[in-house]
Design brief:
This protein is an alpha/beta fold and 120 residues long. Helix content is 39%, strand content 13%. It is built from four helices and four strands. The protein has a four-stranded parallel sheet. Helix 1 runs antiparallel to helix 2 and helix 2 packs across helix 4. The radius of gyration is 14 Å and the shape is globular. Pfam families: DUF488-N3i (PF22752). InterPro entries: YeaO-like.
Length: 120
C-alpha cells in the first residue's frame, strides 16, 4: 500500500504515483494539458450546498469534515478507484484551494487512510 499525499495544483511539486484532481470545478488558469492526471473525480468533491456553507471558513472546518465524510460514505462507487490506486502504490490528491489545512483534499486523504486501515 502506498502513501496518500495532497498537493496544491499551483505548486510545482512533482506528484507521486497515481494523480487525481479532487475538486468539482477545473482550477482557474490551469490548462488541461498541463496537468498529468490519472483521473478527475468530481463526483467526490463536496456537494455544492456543503461547499457554499463551508465557504473556506476555518472555524467551520470540523463540521465540514463531518458532513463531507457523510457524503463520502454515500458514494462508495466513486471512492473505490482511489482506494484501489492507493493499494497499488503512492496516490496524490490534487486540489486548488489556497488554504492548505482546511480543504476537501485534507478530509478525503484522511478518509481514504481510515478506510484502508479498517479491517475488511
Amino acid at each position: 500500500m502506498g502513501d496518500i499525499v495532497i498537493s496544491r495544483v499551483y505548486d510545482a511539486e512533482p506528484a507521486e504515483g497515481a494523480v487525481f484532481l479532487v475538486d468539482g470545478m477545473w482550477p482557474r488558469g490551469v490548462r488541461k494539458e498541463d496537468l498529468k492526471l490519472d483521473g478527475w473525480v468530481r463526483d467526490l468533491a463536496p456537494s455544492a450546498e456543503l461547499r457554499r456553507w463551508f465557504g473556506h471558513r476555518p472555524e467551520r472546518f470540523e463540521e465540514f469534515r463531518l458532513r463531507y465524510r457523510q457524503e463520502l460514505d454515500h458514494a462508495p462507487d466513486a471512492v473505490r478507484p482511489l482506494l484501489e490506486a492507493a493499494r497499488r502504490g503512492p496516490l496524490t490528491l490534487v486540489y486548488a484551494a489556497k488554504d492548505t489545512e482546511h480543504n476537501n483534499a485534507v478530509v478525503l486523504r484522511d478518509y481514504l487512510r481510515d478506510r484502508l486501515a479498517a479491517p475488511a
